[in-house]
Amino acid sequence: MLRLALTGANGFLGWHVRVLARALRWPDPVVISRADLADPDTAAARMAGVDRVLHIAGVNRGEPADVAAGNVELAAALARALRRCATPPAAVVFANSVQAGNGTPYGDSKAVAAATLADARPDLDDVRLPNLYGEHGRPFYNGVTATYCRLLADGREPELHVDRELTLVHVTDAAARLMDAPAGGPWDGTMPGLRISVSDLAHQLAGYAATYRRGEIPALVDRHAVRLFNTYRSHCFPEHYPLPLPRHADARGELVEAVKSHGGQGQTFCSTTHPGVTRGEHFHLAKVERFAVLRGTAEISLRRVDHDEVIRFAVDGSTPVVVDMPTMWTHNIVNTGSDELFTLFWTNEVFDPDRPDTYPEPVGAGTRIPAGVVA
After folding, report:
1. Does position 365 have pLDDT exceeding 80, yes or no?
2. Within 10 A of 26 (CB to CB), how many other CB atoms are there?
């Protein structure tokens, strides 16, 4: 169990660090905001005695001069705080980029930032990150994957301007590398990359979108396929849910098509739930999980980890629908009726008690960095 402090806590990578810390049951990381960095003594006090400081804050987009100055100034501010820290952190990690030193304002500023931090901490762990993708990336800012997923979720088509090869790493794997997270979950700190062209990425995501619009599960043949699909689903939630189920009725009764999966593993199970009883109260990092109430009435509630807003769906077995749990959203289902609730569940993987990818957290509880704090 490590005590972390991090800059950039509200950004794409920073949020995934906080989620992984929650899954590991580590203490919530200490947030060092940009306001804290403006005062070296304040920033020094916040990081004093922690195990690892992760410097994630940076400027990725904008006017070239602003990008260059922003990355250098943030590193310089952190370096000043490190020099004033009475109890220095055991390790300092910089979320650098493979573009460092490539002659662009962004790349050169990242190289200067690394040198600035290394001057204050010669033992700096300088991690060169490739293109990151994952749930809740910001379109037109955090990379082409987030942009394409947003366009497809909105019913638009990805636009290909320049085709090139990319190496994509899932953001949870990058978080695990920065945190030095122990093995044992669906993360991989070695940051296994997916080598893919921009055009192939667009084609693959478009295929997922077309299949999922029918309520069907695309072929999830490897870990990157699962994570790309989860990334797409994060841009669909909550507007695209619940999903209606195809129903077929005749004199014999009714048939409901609950899951159509086009490839990969899967496990289906059913449960009964007594009136007033709640199931769930956990989140997943990679697992795709589908809920379908077939008899009775229920409320499905979800909350994004480290956020406050709760999304609720009232569902009724007389009109079956499905709600697929987005990864990194804690969720539950409660029987709101007076009769027994009958629910079908499906996951994309066979349950492994040694690697369950299930992390307890009540939907009704959670912490959030206050609105208005820029980290």
Report:
1. no
2. 17
Residue 264 maps to a domain = yes
Together in a domain, 65 and 131: yes
- Closest alpha carbon to 108 in 76, 169, 151, 67: 67
Q: What is the pTM of this model?
A: 0.94
Q: Give the relative orientation of helices 144-153 and 223-236 as an angle to the nearest 10 degrees.
A: 50
Residues 37 and 121 in one domain: yes
Q: Which two tokens stand for residue 318?
A: 């007389």
Distance CA 21, CA 35 (A): 23
Domain assignment present for residue 301? The answer is yes
Question: Looking at the domain assignment, is residue 226 inside a domain?
Answer: no
Beta bridge partners of 268: 346
pLDDT of residue 366: 52
Q: 134 or 366, which is more confident?
A: 134
- pLDDT of residue 374 exceeding 70: no
Same domain, 252 and 200: no
- Residue 38 C-beta-side C-alpha neighbours within 13 Å: 5
Q: Is the distance from CB of 296 to CB of 344 less than 8 angstroms?
A: no
Q: 195: helix, coil or strand?
A: strand
Specify whether 88 is located in the same domain as 155.
yes
Q: What secondary structure letter does DSSP report for 219?
A: P
Considering only CA atoms, give the Rg of the chain.
Answer: 22
Domain count, the chain: 2
Sheet holding 267-273, edge to edge: 243-244, 321-325, 289-295, 341-347, 267-273
Contact 252, 309 (CB under 8 A): no
